[in-house]
Amino acid sequence: MVDLKASVEGAAPGARPARDVRGSLWHDAWLELRRRVIFWLSMVILVVACAMAAFPSLFARLGPNEHCNLRMSKKGPGGGAIFGYDLQGCDYWSQIVHGTRASVLIGVAVTVFALLIAVALGLLGGYYGGALDAIISRVTDVFFGIPFVLGATVVLVAFPGHGIWAMTIVLVLLGWTTMTRLMRGQVIAIRDTDYVQAARALGAGDLRIMLKHILPNAIAPVFVVAMLNVGNVISGEATLDYLGVGLQYPDVSWGLQLNVAQVFFAEYPHLLVFPALFLTATVLSFLMLGDVVRDALDPKLH
Amino acid sequence: MRYAVHRLLQAVPVFVATTFLIYAMVFSLPGDPILALAGDKPVPEAVLQALRDHYHLNDPLIVQYGLYMAGVFLRGDLGETFTGQPVSELLTDRWAVTAQLAATAWIFELVVGIGLGVVAGLRRGKLADTAVLAGTTFVIAVPVFVVGYTAQIVLGLNLGLFPTAGTDDGWPTSYLLPGMVLGSFGLAYVARLTRTSVVENLRADYVRTAAAKGLRRSRIIGRHTLRNSLIPVVTYLGVDIGNLMAGAVVTEGIFNLPGIGQQVFQSIQLQEGPVVVGVTTLLVMIFIVASLLVDLLYGVLDPRIRRG
Fold first, then answer.
1. pLDDT of B244 above 60
2. Which of A160, A265, A287 lies at the smallest CB-CB distance from B140?
3. Cβ within 8 Å, pair A262-B145
4. Residue B263 and residue B270: Cα distance in Å, rounded?
5. Could you give the CA distance from residue A187 to residue A217 in angstroms, rounded to a whole number?
6. Please, which of A1, A83, A156, A219 could form a disulfide with A92 given CB 3.0 to 4.6 Å?
7. Complex-level ipTM beyond the 0.95 threshold
């Protein structure tokens, strides 16, 4: 951490955001990333996943829950259906493509909101310290202590009939604490550095110091955790769907498909394998992306 | 000592706020449990009132919460269900199952996770390191219920290496496979954390000093590097005890283990508030006590924390 900070200071002196400067941390990271196969591999998978989420009709022959034929129920791959059919006799490939949107949208939205909360609270608590910091830290502890699956289940059962956005709110509520703690730690490590004091001596206000000097230099590790977090959120959302308390039919999602598959997987493994494959590939891509970005941002490894 | 007291004082409000939040959430679950008790038969108003008074349902939420916590701490009483059965009685056997499951998973994480992490860290960039990194990323990416079903089919059913469900074979046999599944995520995390920590510590100045003084490599690694590398791992392992017990719900469902996870999950859907609150309160307590112990241990392991 200390080395990282030192290099940020050296690379980006003064008020300019670090990413504009040639030879800055972000610029170096990009040069490093360009050469990594894993980076491009996960980017390709994620671009495909995002395209499926945004324009499912480009990939799927049929709409969600469309042209289902109960006589084809649970039939394995073959004929016109490369992934076979699901329990309702819908084309499994189309269903899985349409399931992408829920996972990707919730994963990204939850992370963006959690990141915003983390940046705001981390900056305020870390920068001002004192009573404000104590309150923010204790509130963070409270939410950190709530067990994820049980807490989410209680809330989701209390408010039935929830869609993607309600799921997002619940997952944000239980998922903003880790990044907030990290952000606060980063801010505390940076707020007393020479360049922050120099900015203050030059008459910069608190808001300007926080946004222009501390934020660009504190965000890198939080950003990495956010990328890893997208994968974890997608996995967590699928777990809630799988338990039957998350999204409900007629919504289409990978977690719901796995929920149905749990009863029949012994005889009809394709029901489990295909959604699990898509889910794992997406989560894995976010995790690998986070990993390579972390390596690229860590000057110690260069 | 001042550090310990300070941490303890911080933990108390966190405990109160967390449990109150859970209490409020659980009792905002839809439906009236007293009416549900009677099924579709009409109930005289006087009986309803008497039952509501008996369960303190007419008092403000904060009073109900206070009475409940007083019961928990003064009499060890977790309340009773709306059918009159004491919650603690309902849970006694189930706690044992979940505790055994979580303990198996935890030992698995500790031994295999740290082992893999140390090997990978010492051989950074070699084949073993790459294999551990790739394997752990994969394990983290696959949701735990997919791991569970796959393990159950392949290792349990097809290869017949482990019992597939239930607790008939007792500990440890029945708990090996579920424990490995439950611990797989944490194991991957511990291995990666250990690896990073070992890699960082191997480059520290004190290691160079030790090498310059002519110490043997085995001694440098054993006495200096490992000891310092394990500090962050200890933190994670401590916090993970609570996570394992709370996360057991999925694993217990797959392997049909009659633990608290299954019980709570059913109780949430049946709106059995007292059971949910009882279990969650205990889980939060375990979580907070474990974090507290870890923090204190951390202070012992790393003097900078204690004095800072």
1. yes
2. A287
3. yes
4. 10
5. 9
6. A83
7. no
